[in-house]
Structure formats: structure tokens, C-alpha cells
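From the shared-data thread, chain only:
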Amino acid sequence: MHQALSDLLNLLDLEQIDRDLFRGRSPDEGWQRVYGGQVIGQALVAASRTVAEPERLAHSLHGYFLRPGDTTIPILYDVDRIRDGKSFTTRRVVAIQRGQAIFSMAASFHEPEPGLSHQFAMPDAPSPQDCISEQALLEEYIAHYPDAAEHYGKRARPIEMRYVDPVRDHAPVPMPPHQRVWIKTVDTMPDDQRLNQCLLAYASDMTLIDTSYRPHAVNWRDQNFQVASLDHAMWFHQAVRTDEWLLYDQDSPFSGGARGFSRGAFFDQSGQLVASCAQEGLIRLHT
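Structure, as C-alpha cells:
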């Protein structure tokens, strides 16, 4: 397995230190705070491990980011087994550092069953092979900001991303609050559906908040611009493989009051809607 993906799966493989208590770590990649998708993914791993029935998969999660996470110390995930019902299982997870909650999440699990079905059509998009890669955009950015090479150029990338309509971060211009990104892992994933869900939860936070400030031509490098996820919700509709290309279609219906709201939908290449998410984030301009 590709080393970057192996490292990510190890990151999601929490240590169980008590019946409902798990310990996670963060990679040493120079981040000032823990990446939000990491906390979401690890919290979902912790919740999933307390659900005995393997056929019960996560169908929704709702999380709040409460404090910045410290990358230099472990994160404890305390799971509350709120309910084990006949059809649904409900869990609450609190992520803790230094005795304080940094993230809180509720998650619900359900065994898929037959029922009424419909979905929105997959939006048109060029194939991943015809889109610009994250690596090409990064090289373009480093050409304008050479000091970024040490920090961003060497970072492991377990998830490949190809942008349909990218922002040029070195010189952003106003763009519609909508973006499409193809994503997949850089190597084959295990068949474990729960693990694929957790990895997709990890990936769902990578570009969603960016959509909310695309119309405003803000460079996240600006010292007076502050960005942070505030909450994150996700719904899993169908089985998903994260090692096959998924189109992440995102839009932002509103921003205001120093907050931006974004929505996202994941489609596989056959056009099936496999997951949806929504997020509000802090997008603050300091004067």
C-alpha cells in the first residue's frame, strides 16, 4: 500500500484504552491546529467500534468544533452509548484534550433496508483525467511563494484531488460560490465499509469551507483572514468506495456575519449519490 495512505489508515486506527474510551494522535506536519476532518474521521471510528452489529452502518453525523486541537498531544474520544434500538443505534462522542472538549459529535447507525428511492442527477463534469491536479496547483503556488515549499511541498497526500474549476490561490479572483472536485485515495482501500465511511468523513472537510469565500477573492495566506470550521454534518446514503473517483459537488448559498455556509454532495462515476454534507465555518476578516 502507498505509504501516505497507510499512514492515514494508521491515523484512523485508534487505540482502545477502556470500553468506550479511545486515543488518537495527529501527524507531525507543521499544522498550527488539528485538521477538522481528522477529528471527524477519528470520532466516527470511535463511535463505530461501539456498535456490535457489523451490518449497522453510519447514516448520519452532526459535529461541533469547540476548541482548536493541539497536534502535539493525543486526543481522547469518549463514547456515550445513548441508545441501542431495534433499527437504529445512537452514539455521542466527545473529543478531549487537557481535560476540555475540543469536538462533540452525535452519530446514528442503521442497517440498510429496502424503501422508496430517488436522487438528484449527478451534475455534468469533465473526467478526472481532464482536470488539473492538486500537485499542479501546488507547484503553481510555490512558484509564486517559494517559502511555502518547505511546509506544503513535502506534505504526504493520501487522497488525490483533481479540480474542475480551481481557484488560483496566489492570485484569487471573484468566482461563483460553487466548485467541483474529483477525489479518491492514492491506493486500494480495504473492503471494510465502515472504514470507507470514516475516510470519506475525513476527506469531506478538505475543500468545503473554501466554497464559501470563493466569491470574495480572499487569499487564505492573508494575515487578516481567519478561517475555521464551526460545525459539520454528513449523511451516508449508499455504500461507497473511496479508492474510486468521487465527484464532490459543493456550493455555498450564503455567507455573512463572519460565517460561511456550504453544502456538498458525493457522486460516484456511475452517477449514484453516495453521501451529502453541510458545514458552517468562520470566515473572519480582521481590520
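The chain has a mean pLDDT of 93.
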